Amino acid sequence: xxxxxxxxxxxxxxxxxxxxxxxxxxxxxxxxxxxxxxxxxxxxxxxxxxxxxxxxxxxxxxxxxxxxxxxxxxxxxxxxxxxxxxxxxxxxxxxxxxxxxxxxxxxxxxxxxxxxxxxxxxxxxxxxxxxxxxxxxxxxxxxxxxxxxxxxxxxxxxxxxxxxxxxxxxxxxxxxxxxxxxxxxxxxxxxxxxxxxxxxxxxxxxxxxxxxxxxxxxxxxxxxxxxxxxxxxxxxxxxxxxxxxxxxxxxxxxxxxxxxx
Length: 261
Description:
This protein is an all-alpha fold. The protein has a single domain (about 15-125, about 150-225), classed as MetI-like fold. About 75% of the residues lie in helices and about 0% in strands. The chain has ten helices and no strands. It has helices at about 5, 10-50, 55-70, 75-85, 95-120, 125-135, 140-170, 185-195, 200-230, 240-255. It is globular. The relative contact order is 0.15. The model is unreliable at about 230-245 and about 255-260 (pLDDT under 50). This is Amino acid ABC transporter membrane protein, PAAT family. It is a multi-pass membrane protein. Belongs to the binding-protein-dependent transport system permease family. HisMQ subfamily. Keywords: Amino-acid transport, Cell membrane, Membrane, Transmembrane, Transmembrane helix, Transport.
């Protein structure tokens, strides 16, 4: 059997293509998107805990991030995806699909927490001080002033994380999904095992590329846009720029409490 027949057998590719499009692609996107939603929620909470002055919040957040980023993804999927049902947490019944989403979300949450933390800490400290000087509480200042600006700077990194989560979703097949819950890799793997031909896996790989390559260009465009989007003559540096960004938000926030002149 030559290379063409082994990797690019069109009969094998066309045979598996309907399952890849109708079952594998939707499940891959559902797993990745759901995990990103969960991971973003977790990441924001962990990032806020990481920048807190309270050790009771900061230390557990640091441990969570270090553990989930330090362990291999496949090991984490085994430990959590199979471990949660073993200890009696069977709130989803016998389906392994939700546990795959939860596991991917917890993993993504650790990376997203670091993304948000770096975005928050990159802002000048005067942002928070100015908000507090106007009478805002620490939580309100973080919610209305610091976090919105930090998130804007992290959008390219978040898109990169979404790409990584799409690829990590290929490992959740280890949890034992049903035939209609399979993602792209599992469908390609099953077909390859049945036929002894790798063309189905090549087709699955092409489907991943169709998803991830456009996202990669979107990341590059966003990164370039954020760096060069403003004209040089209108750009400012340091805290003067940060104050200019936050001033409308601060004015609109306190407008209801400031007497009209």
